[in-house]
């Protein structure tokens, strides 16, 4: 089915630098990102030697959360096909994935949920090929939190600790702010984004917009969306216009 080189790659241990971690409830979950799975598939099977098709993409639920954001959930059924060097079907896998979209705009919530469901299904299909696609992450007896994540957590914790009374009153630090203003003169209500600060993120003012900065932003996208921020694919940043008259 697979040649010697492919089997060699597939049987290698998963590089800990590829493992990401996010919080869900009170549990830290380990995972590899969707783009990583696709890059690995291209590396192992070759460009053009694999493909996927969406068998089903259904909305599961829709509601408003406590912040009046739309919360939409989708379910996707995806099938992947792997072809040999003669471009004939060699292997196929099928699995189900779920995705949740949280946004002020209903359209954005649907978009986010649908994309996340398809990506989740693709990742679950590929996990049947072993460690390189994250199957080992499902082994509950192993500790998959890598040292890089732990260092980021420690760094974020240290940044959140108040060094004096003034910093305790003004929790957001904005070293990248382009305007020469003091934090206590910020044109937005800093405490409105306390949930983001608790995740180790910062809010930066730039030309009439608020920009989210910090480490491992992608894994915290649901919390960022819940605060009304939108993602700009060109600059790869989360942004939000500063509301006029905001405290």
TrEMBL record:
Region of interest (Disordered), residue spans: 157-184
Record family assignment: Belongs to the RAD52 family.
SUPFAM superfamilies xref list: dsRNA-binding domain-like
Record bears the keyword Lipid metabolism: no
A Pfam family that the UniProt record links to this protein: Rad52_Rad22
Keyword annotations of the record: DNA damage, DNA recombination, DNA repair
Superkingdom, taxonomy of origin: Bacteria
InterPro entries linked: Rad52_fam, Rad52_Rad59_Rad22, Rad52_Rad59_Rad22_sf
One GO process term, biological-process aspect: double-strand break repair via homologous recombination
Keyword hit for Ribosomal protein: no
Species whose genome carries this gene: Arcobacter venerupis
Protein name: Rad52/22 family double-strand break repair protein
């Amino acid at each position: 089915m697979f040649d010697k080189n492919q089997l060699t790659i597939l049987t290698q241990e998963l590089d800990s630098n590829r493992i990401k971690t996010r919080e869900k409830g009170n549990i830290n979950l380990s995972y590899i990102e969707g783009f990583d799975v696709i890059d690995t598939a291209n590396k192992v099977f070759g460009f053009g030697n694999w493909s996927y098709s969406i068998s089903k993409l259904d909305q599961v639920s829709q509601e408003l959360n406590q912040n009046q954001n739309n919360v939409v959930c989708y379910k996707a059924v995806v099938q992947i096909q792997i072809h040999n060097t003669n471009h004939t079907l060699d292997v196929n896998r099928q699995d189900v994935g779920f995705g949740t979209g949280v946004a002020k705009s209903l359209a954005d919530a649907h978009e986010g949920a649908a994309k996340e469901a398809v990506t989740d299904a693709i990742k679950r299909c590929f996990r049947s090929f072993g460690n390189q696609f994250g199957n080992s992450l499902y082994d509950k007896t192993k500790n998959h939190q890598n040292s890089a994540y732990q260092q980021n957590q420690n760094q974020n914790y240290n940044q959140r600790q108040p060094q004096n009374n003034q910093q305790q009153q003004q929790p957001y630090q904005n070293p990248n702010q382009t305007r020469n203003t003091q934090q206590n003169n910020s044109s937005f209500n800093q405490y409105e984004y306390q949930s983001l600060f608790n995740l180790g993120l910062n809010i930066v003012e730039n030309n009439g917009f608020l920009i989210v900065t910090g480490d491992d932003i992608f894994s915290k996208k649901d919390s960022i969306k819940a605060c009304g921020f939108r993602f700009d694919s060109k600059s790869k940043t989360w942004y939000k216009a500063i509301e006029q008259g905001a405290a």
